[in-house]
Amino acid sequence: MTKSRRLINAAFREVKKNPPKRVRATRRKKGKKAATRQEAAIALSKAKARGAIIKRRK
Q1: What is the model's pLDDT at position 1?
Q2: Residue 26 CB coordination number (10 Å)
Q3: Which of 43, 19, 23 has its CA nearest to residue 31?
Q4: Using an 8 Å Cβ cutoff, are 45 and 14 in contact?
Q5: What global pTM score does this model have?
Q6: CA distances from 43 to 8, 26, 38, 40, 57 (A)
Q7: Tens digit of pLDDT for each residue in 5-45?
């Protein structure tokens, strides 16, 4: 497993285990789908800050 993949997995585990309060507010206002997208964005942002290489979606 590459360093980037390991960092991404760790960030997703962290966000799932301890979701930010902002996600709960989004879930209430916009729904489950928007909150799930926000969780993914937060996790990828954390991984990128730790040095993961994240490619842009096409």
Answers
A1: 85
A2: 18
A3: 23
A4: no
A5: 0.87
A6: 7, 16, 9, 5, 16
A7: 999 999 999 999 999 999 999 999 999 999 999 999 999 99
Best CA proximity match to 26, nearest among 9, 7, 40: 40
Provide the pLDDT for residue 42: 96
DSSP H helices, 1-58, are: 3-17, 21-30, 32-49
Whether 4 contacts 53, CB under 8 Å: yes
Residue 49, pLDDT score: 96
Query: Are 25 and 38 within 8 A, CB to CB?
Result: no
Helix axes 32-49, 21-30, angle to 10 degrees: 150
